[in-house]
Design goal:
- By secondary structure, the protein is of the alpha+beta class.
- 26% of the residues lie in helices and 20% in strands.
- The strands form 7 sheets. Strands 16-15-17-14-18 form a 5-stranded mixed sheet. The chain has a 4-stranded mixed sheet with strand order 1-11-9-8, with helices on one face.
- A hairpin with a 5-residue loop joins β21 and β22 (536-537).
- α3 (127-135) runs antiparallel to α4 (140-148) and α16 runs antiparallel to α17 (488-505).
- The longest helix has 18 residues, at 488-505.
- Residues 1-14 and 547-554 have low confidence and may be disordered.
């Protein structure tokens, strides 16, 4: 059974499709999850619906068994971290015959080391050698020999051994949804030429590409910007069915600039709310939201006076009333003074958060009184255009709140946002004073929030120059120690210390809130939502005869 809402379209010109129709922000750029593509974010909805990782995430974002039913983690005599994964024996590819084997991971991960996002695999033992050989154009035979030496080994058909160069506490979290680490159907692909493999993924037909998730791709219409998914009855990961519920047999993902209008006319069944302004008026009964593992924050130019002094940056962070910044802008808000969202495993405790800069207007006013350099306006840069984050309103309110403590702020909305925050003045420092940015998690682990602010990260704050580089060096040492720590509570404490250096001691950023993602969905759909990483989630989708309605449901 599906929703056949497009049938009544008639002469309106809308191309009808059977089943559920979902409007997505972008079409996938590839179906080849091992070889991948630089625009990987657009591929996630299809990859997560059709494939599966060794691990998965629980409702609390903790690591749970996925394709692996269990695993052991140890260190060898050389200090490498070794994982031994024991695969589920009941998993079959979507042909219903071919079993999942450890060789599927070996084949898929070795292809990933040759793919367009191969740097993601660098922590596997031996992968850096493979990457370096490719960078210098080594002969294919030499690269293949290096691949054979990498730390991915099929011990037997149901046992996979993975060796990392060094311990990494976030590795299991990455396996859950970074699709480069999903297995590939080696029995189908081994021995095929590169062109044959490309054709296999580019032209879905005859039940291929094979899948493991609850759906497989039946059709990819690039010109029409549509992907048709069909239910995979052979999957070991079926949606949890309640009384009267059944899997959705067909789901069409489509790109449209008029998704909301199509939804209003009953022609599609799910649409994201991509404009914060659209949430200001009367809220529809079918409005839902999902808290994201994401943080929206203010960044300071630490190299340009007067913001080159941490006490000034810290005082500005204390001058911001985050509740007032967000009041009335969205149906539900999570104001925050911390970088790590509270739903993230390893997030700061309430006591740790209380020690970070928070709204203290009197102390902020006192610290800022007479501070040299504040007699000039500070320029606040933010992205032009509409989004689900109410950037314009937040920027205007920041300007008003800082005016109350004697700071004049000019607002600069930029379509060339990235180039502007990177632009330097003739004197050397970057040209902006402050800018606004959203950071979303790639996996459910603190590490994913900190990499942006490391020396090689794209933070554009200049804080690597502060204190002769000592604070950043200390920050990176804390992260390195936390990343290598097997004990979860010890690692959490180290990440909390790193957050304190970044947000309090150096006050490089001022966190403002943790965004939520809003969408509308038909009442007959259950389990069709958005995951914590801001990707469409289809793994629990099923159809119900009827569903209750409510305003702004989670």
């Amino acid at each position: 059974m599906g929703l056949w809402l497009a049938a009544a379209c008639g002469p309106c010109g809308f191309q009808p499709d059977p089943g559920i129709k979902v409007v997505v922000p972008a079409m996938p750029t590839t179906l080849d999850w091992s070889f991948s593509d630089p625009a990987s974010w657009a591929n996630y909805p299809v990859m997560l619906a059709t494939q599966k990782g060794l691990t998965t995430l629980g409702t609390d974002n903790s690591v749970q068994p996925g394709l692996a039913e269990r695993w052991e983690r140890e260190r060898d005599a050389q200090g490498h971290e070794v994982y031994t994964f024991h695969l589920r024996s009941d998993v079959r590819w979507s042909d219903g015959v071919t079993p999942l084997t450890a060789q599927d991971f070996v084949f898929g991960w070795r292809r990933a080391m040759l793919g367009r996002e191969r740097g993601e695999t660098a922590e596997i033992l031996g992968a850096r050698e493979v990457l370096n050989l490719q960078e210098r154009g080594a002969p294919a035979e030499e690269v293949r020999a290096a691949l054979e030496r990498t730390g991915v080994e099929a011990v037997d058909p149901h046992t996979l051994r993975v060796t990392l160069e060094r311990p990494r506490s976030y590795f299991l979290s990455r396996l859950a949804n970074v699709y480069l680490f999903f297995p590939a159907p080696s029995a189908e692909l081994a021995g095929r030429s590169d062109e044959e493999i490309k054709d296999y993924f580019d032209r879905p037909r005859d039940g291929r590409p094979l899948s493991l998730g609850p759906y497989r791709v039946e059709r990819w219409d690039r010109a029409g910007e549509r992907v048709r998914l069909v239910h995979n009855p052979a999957s070991a990961f079926q949606p949890p069915l309640g009384p009267g519920e059944q899997p959705a047999p067909i789901v069409t993902l489509m790109k449209s600039e008029i998704g909301t209008a199509l939804y209003e006319r009953g022609r599609v069944d799910f649409v994201f709310i991509d404009s914060a302004l659209a949430l200001r008026g009367k809220r529809p009964e079918d409005l839902h939201y999902e808290p994201l593992l994401s943080t929206y924050f203010l960044v300071f130019n630490t190299e340009r006076p007067p913001l080159n002094r941490p006490e000034v940056r810290r005082a500005i962070a204390r001058a911001l009333d985050r509740d007032a910044l967000l009041a009335g802008l969205l149906p539900a808000v999570r104001p925050s003074n911390v970088l790590l969202p509270p739903e993230l495993p390893g997030a700061a405790t309430a006591e740790e958060a209380a020690r970070l800069p928070h709204f203290e207007p009197e102390s902020a006013r006192e610290e800022l009184r007479g501070a040299p350099g504040l007699d000039r306006p500070l320029r606040l840069v933010f992205k032009a255009g509409d989004s689900f984050v109410p950037e314009v309103a937040i920027a205007e309110r920041i300007a008003a709140q800082l005016a109350a403590v004697g700071i004049t702020v000019t607002l600069d909305s930029r379509s060339d946002f990235s180039a502007e925050v990177a632009r330097r003045t003739p004197e050397g420092p970057r040209a902006y004073d402050m800018y606004l940015r959203r950071l979303g998690a790639d996996y459910a682990h603190p590490n994913t929030f900190f990499t942006l602010f490391e020396r090689e990260g794209n933070h554009q704050s200049g804080w690597e120059t502060q204190g002769g580089g000592e604070p950043m060096a200390r920050f990176e040492r804390l992260l390195e120690e936390a990343d290598a720590e097997a004990d979860a509570e010890r690692a959490r404490s180290l990440y909390a210390q790193a957050q304190q250096v970044l947000v309090d001691e150096q006050a490089v950023i001022a966190p403002l809130y943790h965004p939520d993602r809003y969408y509308r969905a038909r009442s007959q759909l259950r389990g069709l939502d958005v995951d914590p990483f801001n990707f469409l989630a289809l793994k629990s989708l099923r159809l119900a005869p009827e569903a209750g309605q409510g305003s702004a449901q989670r």
